[in-house]
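Handout for the seminar on molecular recognition.
Each group receives one record of this type.
Step one: identify the two inputs.
Step two: read the structure output and locate the region that could contact zinc ion.
Step three: write two sentences on what you found, then compare them with the reference statements printed after the record.
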Amino acid sequence: MTGIARNINKCRVCGGEDLVPYLDLGMMPLVNRYLSRPDADAAEPRFPLKVLLCRGCSLSQLSVVVDPKVLFSEYDYYSSISQTFQRHCELLAESLKREMNLTPEDLVVEIASNDGCMLSKFKALGMRVRGVEPAKNLAKVAEARGLPTLCEFWDSDAAKMVEASDGKAKVVVATNVLAHVDDLHGFIRAVKEVLHPQGVFVFEVPYMVHFIDRTEFDTTYHEHLSYFLLRPLQRALEANGMRVIDALEFAIHGGSIRVIAQIEGGNLQPKSSVQELIRLEQEKGLFDTAAYFLCAERVKLIREELSVFLKGLKGRGRKIAAYGASAKGNILLNYCGLGPETIDFVVDDTPAKQGKFYPGNHLPIVSKDVLHREKPDYLLLLAWNFADELMKNTAEYGLLGGRWVIPIPALQVVAVSPEKRRHATPE
Ligand SMILES: [Zn+2]
């Protein structure tokens, strides 16, 4: 192991040492490190990608932690690019404003605020906002949009800086960041420091129930250190004087939960949803190892099925491209052994990714123009959790006879009906 990664031998939530490995995706490159040259092999470190289950609290976590400075100082995922996520942020801002009776004096702090997608919705509703985002490129974009952003990792020092400049927060939001955090207890303590005594901490994380139900192994990558059930989250919050008052499942990012917590002694009553979800986790057998080993078996089957299918098409002379150069897409391709010999290129709508190369397999990332020019027979939807949106985005490709391949949760090929194509295509 190099100096930028260390092995895990204790559970991040409960400190337990009984950690059972169940999913092993092999040695993987860092999937958010897009390459500017196709031959950058030597500069591309690989680390084991293996998931362990803690028998004490049911937290799943990676067996290694890669230095966050390596992972997050530049980050090429821009939240605002997804229409689905835009709408999701709007709904969250509206519902919190209503339920918390937020007024224009109230402060909303977002941790890992990315390009400010979520904060812009709160600002539009009239609240004061403050972002905290360690990736310089993203913090700059947010600032340019008029969203004050502190370019730091979230910890007690950052909490103090926010409080000094803006006061206590009525709402602290953190979407898709807790899974990235090694020092989970320190993170929660810092939230508690900046939170108003009657405020709420609202966070969203990919939900392990969905991971297991739909075999979402491609959400496993080095940035995602933890894979949460509600049970270990509740334990981590309670250990730091916070209480879960609501938990809600929803569909974004392949399946997530939103958890709302307040400082112990706050005025909100816990909803029945909290106990109901923990009961569901138990009923699904997720406090035991067997369900996890079964999931790992299904992962192997997906690899087998997808690689046989696509390599078979290629063998018959079909042209295949992929769409959505996301981190998860890279895991899927690398784990399934799919590279330039099967797939010609990856289309992505993010200008910052175009012209670069996918880590590991070194596939070129191109704009949609190339899709229309090259007209591949099949388009593998790597960001399959946004499949509907992606098929709409590439409607023209479908009308010209192209087929989409959705790899997860089950291999599926979708085509526009010949009837519809005839009506839409000019003769
Ligand atoms: Zn544990």
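Reference statements: Residues 76 and 102 are 32 Å apart (CA to CA). The first helix runs from residue 68 to 72.
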